[in-house]
Structure formats: C-alpha cells, structure tokens
C-alpha cells in the first residue's frame, strides 16, 4: 500500500526508511502510521458499517431530532456531518459539545422529541463524554443514544452494554490512535457517522468509502513532499478557510496545527464570507492561508472572489489551495496548489475527510520542523491523549 508513496515521495522514503525504534525515538512512529493508514481503514469501516444497516435503522426510526456530540476533535467530527445528515434525514440536526450538555443539559438543543443523540469518541473515556450520556439518560428519557467509538475497552463502550437505550458501535482497533493527536480516529468516525444518511443504500456507501480512499491515496502519493516543504516555510500563524460541511474540517485542522506545535503556531478558522467581517485584519505577512474549496458552483464563486481579494490586497505569506479545477489566476508565486480530480463527483458533503488529511499532514510536518515529537508534542504534560479526570458537578453521575 505504501510502495508508491515511498517510491514517489522523497520525504516519505526518509521517514519510513528509519527503523521502528528510530521512529519511536524521534517521536512519530504512531502519528505517521495512523495518518497513512487512513485509506485502508476507511475501506474497513465502510464494510463494517454497511453490515449493520438494519440495526442502525432501528436506532434511528422515529427520531425527530439528531444531536451530534463529542468533545474537542469529536465535536468537530459532528460538525462535518451535521448539514449533510440534516438534509438526508429530513430532521433538524445540531452539533453540541459534551461540555455544553454537562452545563445546560437538554436545554442546549431544540424541543423536538423523540430524538437520537450520536456520541462520537475516540477513547470513550473523557469525563464529559461519559457524563453527558449519563445526564441525558437521566433527564431526557425520550432521547435514544448511538455511540460511535474507537475503543472497545472505553467507558462509553462498556458502561452501557446491555442498555437497550444505547446502541454502541466500536470501530476497528487500529483506528484507536495511540498518538496524542487524533487522525485516523477522526476520519473514521466521520465516515461511520456519514452512514446514517445512507442506511438504505449500503452498497453506495461502500462505494463512497472506496472512492474516498482512492482520492486520499492519490493525495499522499503525489503531494506528500509538497506539504512537507510548505510546512518548513517561515510562518507563525495559519488561517483555514472553509464553507459548509468543510468548516468542521477547518476547525479540526486548526486544532491539529495548534496541538502538534504546542501552540507555537497560532491558528484561526473562518468561512470565506465571514473573513471580511473583521478577521481579515489578522491576515499578516506571517500568515499561511489554507483554502479548502467547495465543489458547488455557487459556493465556489464566493470563495474565488475572496481569494482574489486577498491577492489584490497582498495579504498573507502564502496560500495552500486544495480543490478541483482551481482557477489558475488564484495561484501566486509562493503558493502551493493541490489539485484533486473527482471532488465534484464526490460532493461537498463527503470532502471534509480529505480536507482534514491535508491539515493533518501540514501539522505533522510543522511539528517535526519545530523539533517536537508528533506522538507527544506536549512535553510539559499540559494536554494528554485522554482528558484527565475533573470534578463533575450536579447530581447525575455515570454508573
């Protein structure tokens, strides 16, 4: 699977040519493997989710509201799904952080009942993720629960075993990233959640997983070195621009850069139209602007206008442009263009996983450039792979 990558991309040959012990000493053995395994894991997730279509349909039946929840990256995974699932299911969908459910309970989401709460969690052990489900079971009896997690031993997967109000789906163990940062866990949870809108078309869903995997492999095989080179440029802040479902990918990409550089690189995320309403003032000569382009003609028209405005005003140190059929006049001398064919056919609703892959690689290479270790970039222990325990207030506690 990696033969073409190593053959075509010099940087990949250097990184993967080291022994596992050397990679471990340099601190990237887990993160690099987990980024590169994504195309293969997407195929497995597609097959496994398609095989339980009936169970998931029964969990969803009758729901008049969909609440997508998680904490940190898992919340952003829900953002990648919200608009698409709302459109395909024909019911309101809301993305709400696990912390908001702890502090505000059912008041945090709309009044429609019965509903389904989809909890996304890599480990299933973060305090607010577990407590949020417990609180909703106690205070919102008309809300059913679906948990998608990557950890069979986590509390979300084990505490509610046998509870007919909670359906638990555990993804393959290799998606339970060992690195501090989430990469393959994130994209596989997005892909798994995506199936809720395609339950009556499992074969089409598996074909989608296959198409996404092919596009991701091509991106790695062709653009790996270019992203490594860009990450070594002289910038100290990154702005991620996106619209619609891709905004979740922009938020996740911003978090990846922040986590993997221990905050040395300042990150922002914004919609293209939203940038004009103040945030453009923060695009300085030290800013890398990452543009995730829509494949929708109307949305793209607004995005292109904004990038042209940035060019005319001479804002930013350079741009990274990712999309299909990007107008040539948008690409300036210092910019990097990643052209990927077939994105319009995939549709905007399915592009966040590919957008995030670009963001993951950029953050990974910048981490190495900063002299940090991608597997554990927070040497001072400020953040951990799983959020450490903290005091849970109120009466409702997980069993």
Mind sketching the topology for me?
Blueprint: H1 3-8, H2 10-17, H3 20-26, H4 29-36, H5 38-50, H6 53-60, E1 66-70, H7 73-89, E2 93-97, H8 98-104, E3 115-121, H9 127-139, E4 143-149, H10 155-158, E5 166-170, H11 184-194, H12 202-231, E6 237-241, H13 246-260, E7 266-270, E8 287-292, H14 297-313, E9 318-323, E10 336-339, H15 343-346, H16 352-369
Parallel strand pairs: 1-2, 1-3, 3-4, 4-5, 6-7, 6-8, 8-9, 9-10
Helix pairs in contact: 5-11, 5-12, 7-11, 7-13, 8-9, 12-16, 13-16
What does this structure look like?
It is a single chain. The chain has two domains: 3-26 and 205-369, Rossmann fold; 39-198, Glucose-6-phosphate isomerase like protein, domain 1 (Rossmann fold, 3-Layer(aba) Sandwich), CATH 3.40.50.10490. Helices cover 47% and strands 14% of the residues. The chain contains 16 helices and ten strands. The strands form two sheets. It has a five-stranded parallel sheet with strand order 2-1-3-4-5, sandwiched between helices. Strands 7-6-8-9-10 form a five-stranded parallel sheet, covered by helices on one side. Helix 5 (38-50) runs antiparallel to helix 12 (202-231) and helix 7 (73-89) runs parallel beside helix 11 (184-194).
Key phrases:
Rossmann fold, single chain, 2 domains, globular, five-stranded parallel β-sheet, 47% helix, 399 residues, 16 helices, alpha/beta
